[in-house]
Amino acid sequence: QVQLVESGGGLVQAGGSLRLSCAASGRSFNDYIMGWFRQAPGKEREFVATIMWSGSSPNYADSVRGRFTIASDNAKNTVYLQMNSLQPEDTAVYYCAARSIWKREYNYWGQGTLVTVSS
Question: 23 - beta bridge partners?
Answer without folding.
Answer: 5, 78
